[in-house]
Every structure is written in structure tokens, then in C-alpha cells.
Amino acid sequence: MHSTPDPAQRNPSTRADLTNVIFLANEVTSPLIEVGDYTYYDDEGTRPPFEQANVKYLYGPQRLVIGRFTAIAPGVTFLMPCGNHPMVGPSTYPFTMFGGTWMDKTLDAFQAIEQPGDTVVGNDVWIGREATILPGVTIGDGAVIGAGSVVAKDAAPYEIVAGNPARHIRKRFEDADIQRLLALRWWDWPIEKITEHAAVLMAGTAEGLEGLG
Questions:
Q1: Which pTM value belongs to this model?
Q2: Would you name the residues annotated as active-site residues?
Q3: Which distant-in-sequence residues (6+ apart) come within 8 Å of 19 by Cβ?
Q4: Where are the domains of the chain?
Q5: CA dihedral over 172, 178, 182, 188, signed as positive or negative
Q6: Which CATH number, 3.30.260.10, 2.160.10.10, 3.30.70.370, 2.30.40.10, labels domain 16-90+116-172?
Q7: Going residue by residue through the chain (213 aa), what tens digit of pLDDT does each one get?
Q8: Selection from 60, 36, 207 nearest residue 122 by Cα
């Protein structure tokens, strides 16, 4: 009997040695985190829940939005904008954080400082082990983030970036093939179609995938 992973299950694998791989949408509870189906995180079976251990300073209003079929390795950290210190004035000290008179004196000034927006991770993204994603970054569909990278600026669709700070390594495909893949949006196909053509998705070509339309 053939089966496909159930996106509604936290531990979807039928393999006993993969209980550490979880479908993330079934674990997160914060309304400030949105995760698409089939996106997984490897918690190594020992790490605290993702939104506690991996998402820092999640106080809003900015959100963390992650697409479908994205793979997140152990120890990936998302730093959200509330962890930022103001840098527009003479001091970076976060007076407002301590409440009381300091908050009364600084709240209006703090709220007037421009902040990064949502942190957005696309579909079919691979984020390597212990990478750090800084506030307000957008990672495009199909991008790859190298292990240990510190991503301080946006990564384009199907771009490979790595390092500290992360820099462009190469594109995964030629521009024409990237446009094919972005137009196809295979991650939105019915799961039956994805299952049928999984081998092409893993080892085929953009042109071959386009022919399945």
C-alpha cells in the first residue's frame, strides 16, 4: 500500500529513525508565525519547541512567514525586529524596554523609528544548520542558505548564499529556468501530482517539469 506523509501530523515519517523531523505547522502556536504544509524542521529529538528555541524577540507586530516544502536544519535562528536596538541617535541603549519613566520619556521616539517588516521565507527553501536570519529578511523561493550563514539581506529566488555576512555564491539555475520554476509553482500542485512527479522534482530539469504542466 502506497502512502504520502500527512501534513497534519507533527511526526510524518514512517521511518523509525526520523522521529526528529517534524512538520512545523503542527508545532507552532504563535499567531505571529505562519508555516506552510510539508515544511519541516529537524529538532534532533532534543531541542525545545521551535518558536521558543529558534525564533527570538517575537513580540510583534512583525511576523515570521514560511512557505511550503521548506527544509530547516537544526539550530536555525530567526531574529525578529523587536531584538533591534535603535541606531539613529547617539545611543543604542534600549531605554524603552525597562518601562516606568524611561518608557514614558522614550516611547514616542522609539515608535517613530523605522523598523524592518515581516521576515519571509519562500517555498522549497533549504536553510542549513545553525544559520541565522536577521530581522526583515526575505528569502525567495528555491533559495539555499549555507550552514552557519548570517543572512543580513534578501536572498533572491533560487540563489545560493553562504558566509558571515551571507554573500551570493551562485544561482542554482539559468535565469530562463528560474522563471519557468517560478511560473510553475510546483509546491501549489495537488499532492497527488507532486507525488507522481517527485522523481522529476528531485533529479529532473525545469524544462522537463514544465512539460508535465
A1: 0.94
A2: 85
A3: 11, 13, 45
A4: 16-90+116-172, 174-213
A5: negative
A6: 2.160.10.10
A7: 458 899 999 988 777 677 899 999 999 999 999 999 999 999 998 999 999 999 999 999 999 999 999 999 999 999 999 999 999 999 999 999 999 999 999 999 999 999 999 999 999 999 999 999 999 999 999 999 999 999 999 999 999 999 999 999 999 999 999 999 999 999 999 999 999 999 999 999 999 999 886
A8: 36
